[in-house]
Amino acid sequence: MNKPLILVVEDDKAIRNLITTTLETQGYLYHTAATGEASILEAVSSRPDVIILDLGLPDMDGVDIIRKVRSWSNTPIVVVSARSEDKDKIDALDAGADDYLTKPFSVDELLARLRVSLRRVRYDSGKLRRDSPVFVNGGLKIDYAAGSVRLDGKEIHLTPIEYKLLCLLAKNVGKVLTHNFILREIWGSYSSDLSALRVFMATLRKKIEKDPSRPRYIQTHIGVGYRMLRVGDDSAGN
Ligand code: CA
Questions:
Q1: Ligand 1 centre and the CA of 200: distance in Å?
Q2: Which of 60, 100, 138, 151 has its CA 20 to 30 A from that of 212?
Q3: In order of start, what are the domains of the chain with their CATH numbers?
Q4: Measured in angstroms, how far is the CA atom of residue 52 from the centroid of ligand 1?
Q5: Which of 168, 152, 237 is nearest to 200 (CA)?
Q6: Ligand 1 centroid, distance to 161 Cα (angstroms)
Q7: What are the tens digits of pLDDT across the range 183-195?
Q8: pLDDT (tens digit per residue) in 203-222
């Protein structure tokens, strides 16, 4: 990949400048947009590698922008939101955003999120990978055809729900999945038992994490959901 192109969508000039200055010093290319309408035009015309999207724009709901972009593009979207927009953040993830930053955020945090998103782009563009019958991440190996999971070469035994959970996270590696999304995928739309999800996640972690209190593979996003990280990625807080 050449220098990655980042589309920065932010109506607040000071924040936009902070982001673009950071990108510039790190050797990224960028385009900017200050409105929803301009952001969609830019996304279509410049085909960015990652979109950084402020949810609070003057002309359009950020979640609508994500839906529009997602109707034709799989470009990673990192949402930027104020803390008071927590519900919007979750809606944004459910609409197809990959990750989020909460204002105020640090420059290091921003760069870490970008690296995770860019890794996903590279991973997706490796053609065979997406439909590969085997998923490998660090010492974790899932053989989808055999329905088996190995950790550091040793087979581990998962219950059917733990296995489904692990596969769902693996298929969306790098992406933050909301509680609602996971509940819907695993239990169907009628269930919303968050405590059950927490229990299964805890037992799954006991089996795949060497130190479940400091997980390497599955990251918790408090109040939001979970994400599987590529081992070697920044854990990027939260
Ligand atoms: Ca704003």
A1: 37
A2: 100
A3: 5-125 (3.40.50.2300), 134-228 (1.10.10.10)
A4: 12
A5: 168
A6: 40
A7: 989 988 666 688 8
A8: 999 999 988 888 999 999 99
Per-residue pLDDT at 2: 81
- Ligand 1 centroid–CA 62 distance in Å is 10
Write down the pLDDT at residue 200. Answer: 94
In angstroms, rounded to a whole number, what is the distance separating the alpha carbons of residues 235 and 233?
Answer: 6
Write the DSSP string, 80-104. EEEGGGHHHHHHHHHTT--EEEEES
Distance from residue 81's CA to the centre of ligand 1 (Å): 8
Q: By C-alpha distance, which of 77, 177, 160, 56 is closest to 121?
A: 77
CA distances from 40 to 8, 52, 53, 66 (A): 11, 12, 11, 9
pLDDT higher than threshold 70 for residue 237:
no
Note the pTM of the prediction, 2 decimals: 0.83
- Ligand 1 centre to CA of 80 (Å) is 9
10 Cα: distance to centroid of ligand 1 (angstroms): 6
**Residue of higher predicted confidence among 63 and 82:** 63
C-alpha of residue 125 to centroid of ligand 1, in Å = 32
* pLDDT of 73 strictly over 80: yes
